Amino acid sequence: MRRSVRVAVAIVAVLGLAAGFSSFYEVPEAQEALVVRFGRPVSVQTEPGLWMKLPFVDTVTLFDMRLLALEPPTEPVTLGDQKRIVVDSYTQFRIADPLRFDQSVRTLEQARSQLSQIVGASMHRVLGQVSLPDLLSPQRDAIIGKVRQLVADQAKALGIEVVDVGIRRAELPTETSQAIYDRMTSERQREAKELRAQGFEWAQEIKSKADRERAVTLADADLKGRITRNEGDAEASRLFAAAFGRDPKFFAFYRAMQSYRHALADSAPTVVLSPQSELMRFFNAGAPEGPPPGSAK
Predict the structure, then answer these.
(1) Can you give the pLDDT at residue 276?
(2) Burial class (CB in 10 A: 0-12, 13-18, 19+), 6
């Protein structure tokens, strides 16, 4: 009998200790606690510290009230001007209403999933009404503000407060970027061909002008040379005429000597001539008598 009493007392003591320990729960800093009794919410404790609850009946769920970050995967968005871009966005939020949060999504993973869908739908709805130049202009802040407001309004039903929604990066899809790059390359190649053709045309014009100027210069030089030579020939003829007038015999002798030099210079070592040849006249007669050229008579 005593043994069964001791066992009963021990069991009661253990149950009492367990009930004592389960009667308290701790709320850490930056967290809130939701107390649920038989599946129904009883209270929300927002102050940190040690608090009491009914043992074995109440369950406590802690929620992180700090600022949380959501980075949805990048997704393509079609803009109002039918341009397709890939948007990389981010969202900052916190759990504002633990009771509503527990009733709507219960877990943080489920909350992230639903909030990611809300952000994606809001992006498509707002960006589908704007053009790419507007998104790249100072209007960008107002456009992102509309997205933020849409996400915040829908997130309230989940017990979530959306602090910020932004676009980290918005760029063209890879295939679009490649097409644009190819088109830009083709345009630059076309411009290069046009510039080369224009340069070749300019080069031909410059060359033609230079050739024309060269021909004109050569023609002028040849004309001046002919004039100079003719003037020289005229002067030589005048001098010859003057010399012939002063001493015709000596002039005839001088011209004959020039004829001998030009006629015999390229001939063979042996020349056969008739003694009565006019060419041999001065060889037979000798030099004409009289004063040398240039002396006074």
Answers:
(1) 63
(2) exposed
Number of Cβ atoms within 10 Å of the Cβ of 34:
19
Alpha helices in 81-173 (DSSP H): 98-104, 108-127, 132-135, 140-155
pLDDT-based confidence at residue 280 (cuts at 50, 70, 90): low
CB 116, CB 93: distance < 8 Å: no
**Fold for domain 68-172?**
Tetrahydropterin Synthase; Chain A (3.30.479)
- The residue count of the chain comes to 297
Question: Residue 162: which of 119, 100, 214 has the closest Cα?
Answer: 119
C-alpha to C-alpha distance for 214 and 211, rounded to whole angstroms: 5
Query: Strands 31-37, 58-64: parallel, antiparallel or unpaired by DSSP?
Result: antiparallel
Q: Is 286:250 a contact under the CB 8 Å cutoff? A: no
To 10 degrees, the CA torsion angle through 93, 98, 104, 105?
A: 60
Residues 6+ apart with CB under 8 A from 293: 243, 246, 247, 250, 251, 254
Strand 84-95 to 160-171 pairing: antiparallel
> In this prediction, what percent of the chain has a pLDDT beyond 90?
24
Nearest to 37 by CA among 63, 55, 15: 55
Q: Give the pLDDT confidence of 3-12 residue by residue, as tens digits.
A: 666 656 556 5
The residues spanned by each domain of the chain are: 2-64, 68-172, 189-246, 248-297
pLDDT at 97 (0 to 100): 87
Beta strand segments in 122-279, E: 160-171
Rg over alpha carbons for the chain, rounded to the nearest Å, is 59
- For residue range 219-272, list pLDDT tens digits in order: 999 999 989 988 888 888 787 777 777 777 777 777 777 776 766 666 556 666
With vertex at residue 226, the alpha carbon angle to CA 223 and CA 231, rounded to the nearest 5 degrees, is 125
Token code pair at residue 245 = 């007038």
Residue 118's φ and ψ, nearest 5 degrees, are -65, -45
* pLDDT of amino acid 9: 54
